[in-house]
Amino acid sequence: MEAINNYIKGHFADSIxxxxxxxxxxxxxxxxxxxxxxxxxxxxxxxKTLLAGNGGSAADAQHIAGEFVSKFxxxxxxxxxxxxxxxxxxxxxIGNDYGYDKLFSRQVQxxxxxxxxxxxxxxxxxxxxxxxxxKICKEKGIISVGLTGKSxxxxxxxxxxxxxxxxxxxxxxxxxxxxxxxxxxxxxxxxLFGKGFKCL
Length: 200
Prior knowledge:
single chain; alpha/beta; Rossmann fold; 5 strands
C-alpha cells in the first residue's frame, strides 16, 4: 500500500513541478497572455475559434470549445467555437475520401475564415493532421496557435504562437494544456463580458 501511495504522490509532484516551470517562465506566461488577447480580438471582430487534436487532445479541444460556447465562470452570451473532432459524418467522409492526414485541414479550408483562431493541440508537436491544418491557416490568414510539449516538434515553425509545455511526459503535458486552455477561456470571457477578474 505504501508503494501505491508513493506512486500517487509522485504523479501529483510531477504535475506540480511542470506547472511551476511554466509559472517561473516569464516568456511563456506572456505568450499565453498574447494568445488570450488575440483570441479576444478575434471574437470582437465577429470571428471564431477552431480547435483540433487527437486522442486526449481531441477531448481537450472539445472541452475548450464547450467553455467558449456555453460559459466558463459566469453567465454571458456564447461565443462561436468549433471542435473539429466531433462530427462523425465529416470525419469519416474526409478520412475515407482524403485520408486521416487531411482530417482537420479540409475542415479548416471549408469552415475557417480570415481572422479566425485555430488552436491545434499535439503533445509531440508532430501530428500530421494538425500540421496540414496549420498550412491551410497560413493560406487563409487564420491565426494559428499550437499547444505542444517541450520541443514544439514540427509545429513550432508553423504556428503564429506555439505554447510549449516544458515536459516530455504526455500526461503531464495534457494536464497543463487544459489548464492553459482554461486560463485563455477565463481571460477571453472577462475581456468580452466581465467587470474585473474575480474568481481565482
